[in-house]
Amino acid sequence: MLEREHIEFVQAQMLPWLRIGPGLARPDAEIKLLSRDEGDGACSVLLRFPPGWSREGPEHLLADEEFYVLEGQIELNGQNYAQDTYAFLPAGWTRNTTSTRTGCVLIAFYSADPVLVAHAGDGRAEQSARAVPYLDVAAMPWDMSLNDPKLKHLGISRKDLRRDPERASAPSSR
Questions:
Q1: Which pLDDT tens digit goes with each residue over 141-154?
Q2: Which is higher by pLDDT, 80 or 4?
Q3: Would you place residue 1 in the very low, low, confident or very high pLDDT band (cuts 50, 70, 90)?
């Protein structure tokens, strides 16, 4: 994994929006591909859903999905994700309904090629300690605990969105 070349900055405004076709994970939405691993298909994307977009399940992805809502709102299985909300859904997470009344732009990260499977997952993803079904990031406090005391005057801070208990990795601070 992570055979992608290092890219410091992506000028997303210079990338075209591409319509997602039928039979794919988010048909009729639009995508900007920010990066993709040629080995396993792991990718970073911007997704734009038009007002009124909806999809009925049950269905699931064969990849972990991590997303942060940048604009608008999207509802997944009855949970509303508005601007500045976040989720990490392990591979196999069942989506029964997904919709947006107003439209939505989000940034998403997939651990592998986001292949859609047109039936419910086996339920393990929803029980996984790795899952972060919903975070209101705007309401979270800023953490300044790891800052170098010499840099405190800069006010550098972060918000930890998740820790992966299976990898005991550093927190994801996106």
A1: 998 887 778 888 88
A2: 80
A3: very low
The answer to whether the bond into 58 is cis (omega within 30° of 0) is yes
- Tell whether 21 is covered by a domain: yes
Q: Which domain holds residue 52?
A: 12-140
In b/e form, how buried is each residue of 61-90, taking b as 16+ CB within 10 angstroms? bbbbbbbbbeebbbbbeeeebeebbbbbbb
Query: What distance lies between CA 11 and its chain's CA centroid?
Result: 19
Is position 164 within any domain? no
| 163: amino acid identity, one letter | R
Give residue 132's pLDDT.
Answer: 97
Write down the pTM of the prediction.
Answer: 0.87
What is the C-alpha separation between 36 and 110, in angstroms, rounded?
9
Token pair for 84? 């500045």
Neighbours of 147 (CB within 10 A): 14
